[in-house]
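Assemble and predict.
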Amino acid sequence: MTIWQQPWKMWRHVVKLDPDRNIEDSVLRELPHTGTDAIFVGGTQDITLENTRALVDRMRAAAPGLPIWQEISEQHAIVTEVSGYAIPVVLNAGNKEWLIGRHMTAIREYGPLIPWERTLIEGYIIMNPDADVAKRTQAVIPRSPEEAAAYAEAAERIFGMKTLYVEYSGQYGDPEWVHSIRDVTRQAHLFYGGGITTAERAAEMASIVDTIVVGNALYEQGTEIVRETVKAVKETEKPS
Ligand code: 1GP
């Protein structure tokens, strides 16, 4: 697979939009001017085809040039008008539905229709026990940096995963723990999401991982924080 088929390898900064949360058109229109590399559309609670399609349509109208990738959590909410699909595989899910069950069902249903060349398979490691996604997947939270790193190593060495997502959703993670994951990965592309609310935090995590994801901060602080975090990330050297 060539690099142009894996555009996320070039992304340093992504904004995650939740179809279940309100956001003004004026904010969506500003997003392409913030310098962010791509938009993820997805969430954990109350994701429907209607609210997903409505947000994707509005986003496409507001920012025609920005890649929009749907992060799939509900099969019935899959929309076709996106650049690609991010498919979470929750490595530390307590309920195996989220590790392989839903994936098997989707493949049985859609098999030949799945555009694999436009999919990003994300090996999720959920780190924040209070996050909705942790509750929904009954995640078994790593108890030490070594355990977190072992999930990453298993993902890469055993399952051959090429992309991992360290998910602290709603909480800023401990950089030492994220470092321990980075240290054991060989080539995997690392996403980090959770609690990036300042330029300093963006720079700190961007010095460890390949791509940072900003969610909540946009809803709470507006597009200025997106601009500031993009700037911080672009001034930070990508880990080698
Ligand atoms: C959530 O990782 C993202 O899935 C971003 O987290 O909302 O805490 O920024 P925040």
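The longest helix spans residues 49-62.
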